[in-house]
Design goal:
Strands 2-1-8-7 form a four-stranded mixed sheet. A four-stranded antiparallel sheet has the order 3-4-5-6, with helices on one face. The protein folds into two domains: 51 residues; 138 residues, FAS1 domain (Roll), CATH 2.30.180.10. It is α+β, with helices and mostly antiparallel strands.
Length: 200
């Protein structure tokens, strides 16, 4: 009688052991599947990063930059903004160009005036990546303002108006940064609501 009573116990123990082993195996499989999924997610993120458009491609895709895109393509800056590099561009939106005399914009977009246009556009490009946070920190450390040197050698003065960065060119023209820290494959884009001009 005692032997008969022990057998069900061994049988039950065996079932529990098999079940536990099965659960451990399932847990291991789930972990392996998770690892694969994590690897896929990382790969996907890297792929997305690699597919970021260049500054020029980004501007070309957005109708709000149609005037800027046309201006860039007239000059030799198009090649620079398509290449690999580290640039920050303060990109004037169409409304910024609309503030200028229409005949001035029309004249600048002509091929014979490409050098003058290049000089103007160069006032909007910094030869390194600078985030809005970088600018704000520099403004605070500079007691309220900081000078930013562009690829054309012009100096822009950055200050704060409320919580927004305000840029002033060497002619005294000023504009707010609107959208900031837009990532491109070769730098950053900050939109601005004014056209920066070089010193005459």
């Amino acid at each position: 009688m005692k032997i008969r009573n022990v057998l069900p116990v061994f049988t039950l123990s065996g079932l529990l052991l098999i079940t536990a082993c099965s659960e451990t195996k399932n847990d291991r499989t789930t972990q392996e599947e998770n690892d694969k999924l994590i690897a896929q997610n990382v790969a996907s993120s890297e792929t997305i990063k690699e597919k970021l458009p260049t500054i020029l491609e980004f501007a070309s895709m957005d109708k709000g930059f149609s005037t800027l895109t046309s201006a860039i393509k007239v000059t030799e800056l198009a090649k620079s903004l398509e290449d690999k590099g580290s640039f920050t561009i303060f990109a004037p939106v169409n409304l910024a160009f609309d503030k200028l005399n229409p005949t001035t914009v029309e004249k600048l977009l002509k091929q014979e005036n490409k050098e003058q246009l290049k000089t103007i556009l160069s006032c909007h490009i910094i030869p390194s990546v600078i985030t809005k946070e970088d600018i704000v920190i520099a403004i605070n450390e500079g007691n309220g303002s900081v000078k930013l040197k562009t690829i054309g050698g012009a100096l822009l003065t950055a200050t704060m108006k409320g919580d927004r960065v305000f840029l002033i060119d060497q002619m005294g023209n000023g504009g707010h940064l609107v959208t900031t820290d837009v990532k491109a494959s070769n730098g950053l884009i900050h939109t601005i609501d004014a056209v920066m001009m070089p010193k005459k």
